[in-house]
Specification:
Helix content is 40%, strand content 17%. The protein contains 11 helices and 15 strands. It has a 7-stranded mixed sheet, with helices on both faces. It is globular and about 65 Å long. The mean pLDDT is 97. Bound molecules: pyridoxal-5'-phosphate. Pyridoxal-5'-phosphate (PLP) binds next to α3. Pyridoxal-5'-phosphate binds next to α3.
């Protein structure tokens, strides 16, 4: 029996319910000590790539690589895709850190910034921008950007590469990969796995850019440069000794998601989000933090709980539910709720009912 609470924190979040079984069977098979230069490992790798292509409809124009985290992919993106200038849409803590990563790497990093809780429309990209950094779902504030905005940034700025952080919106968000150059995520949010694996999806334009930078004498990093990742991916391998267990587990969970069907996962996510937003919108004491419905995330829902924060947290705790704290300045006045494939309809109904009954 599990006595721990249902974890609604956005990340790490509640593990997907099949993970424990997969870990047990991985240990029985000796997965954690398998060499990454064996056919067995290559099989896990290939199974994962094929599963991700099916689940997320990733076309063959895009390659899939594995890194340690999304934080690493922020850094690798800047190293491999930017000679001088990157442009960042900043509307919270995660998009800000992507911007700061480019600054740390001494790039000419330019940002357009809006207040927490807000999104963007009509973004003007400065000339000579090589990379447009977009955080699809700002986990700190619960703001999700419309895909049409992201696609229009690529369409209107064909010389730049559009790079999308979809860490807390995949696998829910249905991205048209033909309309973006790169997308990345890590596994401890929507995929319900222990942290420690980042997935980096790139098209040929990204690979060409990395080649060009290397040719011109710029450092694109060493073992996790795009070119090194590509050289090994062809053999279903990674440059370094990777987290073999994590690659195996993600392959298994993706298989589970495919069996359940991405359509069902998406429609269930919509239902759960609607249930919680309805309870928040009708509540006398609590509101959704993001007021504009077009920017309200389906996967990370932030409640403005003001001076009721502690009391609500305690009430949810009594019913076995653990909300996420607000982020940064919102720590004492907001609660965040992840809505990932692991969270069931029943759990969301209990959450919404408990909130509605409060106060
Ligand atoms: C959690 C998160 C990250 C960082 O992920 P790590 O796996 O911790 O590196 C980046 N971007 C967003 C939007 C996130 O929610």
């Amino acid at each position: 029996m599990h006595t721990h609470k249902i974890n609604f924190t956005p990340g790490p979040s509640q593990l997907y319910f099949t993970v424990e079984g997969h870990i047990k069977s991985a240990f029985k098979q000796g997965v954690p000590s398998i060499s990454h230069r064996t056919r067995t490992f290559e099989g896990y790798y290939q199974h994962l790539v094929e599963g991700l292509r099916q689940l997320l409809a990733i076309p063959t124009s895009h390659q899939i690589f594995f890194c340690a985290s999304a934080t690493e992919i922020w850094e690798r993106s800047i190293q491999n895709l930017v000679a001088n200038k990157s442009f960042h849409l900043v509307n919270g803590a995660f998009s800000k850190r992507f911007f700061e990563t480019a600054q740390s790497l001494k790039k000419d990093a330019v940002k357009v910034e809006v207040e927490n809780g807000m999104g963007f429309r009509d973004v003007k990209v400065p000339p000579d921008t090589e990379l447009i950094a977009i955080t699809h779902n700002e986990t700190s504030t619960g703001v999700s950007l419309p895909l049409d905005l992201i696609y229009s940034l690529q369409a209107q700025n064909p010389a730049a590469l559009t790079v999308v952080d979809a860490v807390s919106s995949l696998p829910y968000v249905n991205i048209d990969y033909a309309k973006v150059d790169s997308v990345f995520f890590s596994v401890q949010k929507g995929f319900g796995l222990p942290a420690g694996l980042g997935v980096w999806i790139v098209n040929d334009r990204c690979l060409s850019k990395a080649e060009e930078l290397q040719r011109k004498g710029q450092s694109i990093g060493s073992y996790h440069s795009l070119l090194s990742l590509q050289d090994h991916a062809i053999k279903n391998q990674t440059p370094e000794t990777p987290n073999v267990l994590a690659i195996y587990l993600l392959g298994k969970v993706v298989e589970d998601f495919n069996r359940r069907g991405i359509k069902a996962i998406r429609s269930e996510t919509d239902y759960k989000a609607a249930t919680l937003y309805q309870s928040l919108t009708r509540h006398p004491l609590v509101q959704p933090f993001v007021t504009e419905s077009g920017f309200q995330s389906r996967t990370v829902i932030v409640a403005q709980t003001n001076d009721q924060t502690q009391a609500i947290s305690a009430k949810l705790g009594e019913k076995g539910m653990l909300p996420g704290d607000g982020y940064g300045a919102g720590k004492k006045t907001q609660l965040r709720f992840a809505n990932f494939p692991t969270h069931s309809r029943e759990q969301f109904e209990l959450l919404a009912d408990t909130l509605s009954a409060f106060g």
